[in-house]
Design goal:
This protein is mainly α and 165 residues long. The chain is 45% helix and 9% strand. It is built from five helices and three strands.
Length: 165
C-alpha cells in the first residue's frame, strides 16, 4: 500500500512538473502600451504624462478609453490598427494614450463614462469637447464604420493647433 501511494505521488509530481514546463514554453506576445491599437505608435503610460508631453511638444493628446472585454472596443481597435492614415497621424501628429480605466479628470467624461470613447486635449491642456463623433447619445464614441469621421476629427484637432500658433 505504501509503495503504491509513493508511486502515485511520484507520478503526480512528474506530470505536474512536465505540465508546468509546457506552460512556460508557450509563447505569449509581449504586452506593450499599444494594447493592439498600433505598435508603431509611441504611447504614453498615464494621463498626466500625456498632458506633460502635449504641452511640451505642442501636439494634441488623443485619449482612447476602452476595455479588453468590450466587443465594440475590440472591433474599433481592429480597424483603427489597420487604417494607415489614422496610424500615420497618430504616430506623427499626436501624443497617444489608451486607457482601460477612468481618470480623475471629469473633463474626460463630459457626457458620461462609456467605452469606446475618444477625446482630444489641446496643448493648452483644454479638453476639446467640440470634437465629437456622430452619435447624440454618446458624443465621443466611434464605431469601425466611423473611421473616416475619426480621421477628419484628428485633422481638425491638428488644424486647431496650427491656427493657434
Amino acid at each position: 500500500m505504501l509503495h503504491s501511494t509513493l508511486g502515485l505521488c511520484l507520478l503526480l509530481v512528474t506530470v505536474s512538473s512536465n505540465l508546468a514546463i509546457a506552460i512556460k514554453k508557450e509563447k505569449r506576445p509581449p504586452q506593450t502600451l499599444s494594447r493592439g491599437w498600433g505598435d508603431d505608435i509611441t504611447w504614453v503610460q498615464t494621463y498626466e504624462e500625456g498632458l506633460f508631453h502635449a504641452h511640451k511638444s505642442n501636439k494634441p493628446l488623443m485619449v482612447i478609453h476602452h476595455l479588453e472585454d468590450c466587443q465594440y472596443c475590440q472591433a474599433l481597435k481592429q480597424e483603427f490598427s489597420k487604417n494607415e492614415e489614422i496610424q500615420e497621424m497618430a504616430q506623427n501628429g499626436f501624443i497617444m494614450l489608451n486607457l482601460m480605466h477612468e481618470t480623475t479628470d471629469k473633463n474626460l467624461s463630459p457626457d458620461g463614462q462609456y467605452v469606446p470613447r475618444i477625446l482630444f486635449v489641446d496643448p493648452s491642456l483644454t479638453v476639446r469637447a467640440d470634437i465629437t463623433g456622430r452619435y447624440s447619445n454618446r458624443l465621443y464614441t466611434y464605431e469601425p464604420q466611423d473611421l473616416p469621421l475619426l480621421a477628419d476629427n484628428m485633422k481638425k484637432a491638428l488644424r486647431l493647433i496650427q491656427s493657434e500658433l
